[in-house]
């Protein structure tokens, strides 16, 4: 490589080179290609003979390096795009919160289930009053009413007890030998009793919407959000948390969504953009006899003036 003193013109034409580079869309490879083409036309002696001159080899090496750098930048850009896409996907995926049912709530659910079992339709009731598609009301049975023949077409395999959520384990009080941690696995636990299907003449799929009183309090890094709903059914309730990019491009927002089914016939749904960040992995839900308590673990020590902003889920989906 020649020293700087070997080329007294180095740096003297930076302005002209910058102008040429601008005319080549700031692409060094295009500029060097034009220069090489020009030199081959005007200085052919530099490119004759068995060996390429220093100028030819240098230009060729630079072109090769620029081409390689461009390819590397393109690959890195694609990798960054995929990584960003994956990060957004992981950020926006809702996480189901762990649910625990207190002993007193468990007993209340069992009493409600026993009372419901006593309210069997009288033999004289008309089966034509049962809406088609009505699901069997026995826990664990997925059969839907398709007409009078439904009773003979399949046996009802169901759970006589009530769901138990305790210390991360999920099982049925009637057959507690089978215990799982995943909610989906819990729903798939096969019934322990066989009997006749029970279909209500009331369409239980049309649960009534009812507002519930709520409040919150905070102590240190813990925020407790209370939903005053009795007889919350853990098999028909859902509680999720997720992060989402903020509209202003700042810190991500944390979104709490829940659907509470209570007293056997009412639904209460809400989506809240929380007032601050939380540690999603340590947040949990307690179903108590008089209420449902969502325990949120703050990700920082800031105080909250409110639980956050209640929003429509559709509005978040459009963002």
Automatic annotation (TrEMBL):
<keyword id="KW-0677">Repeat</keyword>
<protein>
    <submittedName>
        <fullName>Integrin beta-1-binding protein 2</fullName>
    </submittedName>
</protein>
<keyword id="KW-0479">Metal-binding</keyword>
<dbReference type="InterPro" id="IPR039790">
    <property type="entry name" value="CHRD1"/>
</dbReference>
<feature type="domain" description="CHORD">
    <location>
        <begin position="136"/>
        <end position="197"/>
    </location>
</feature>
<dbReference type="GO" id="GO:0046872">
    <property type="term" value="F:metal ion binding"/>
</dbReference>
<dbReference type="GO" id="GO:0007229">
    <property type="term" value="P:integrin-mediated signaling pathway"/>
</dbReference>
<keyword id="KW-0862">Zinc</keyword>
<keyword id="KW-0401">Integrin</keyword>
<dbReference type="InterPro" id="IPR007051">
    <property type="entry name" value="CHORD_dom"/>
</dbReference>
<dbReference type="InterPro" id="IPR008978">
    <property type="entry name" value="HSP20-like_chaperone"/>
</dbReference>
<dbReference type="Pfam" id="PF04968">
    <property type="entry name" value="CHORD"/>
</dbReference>
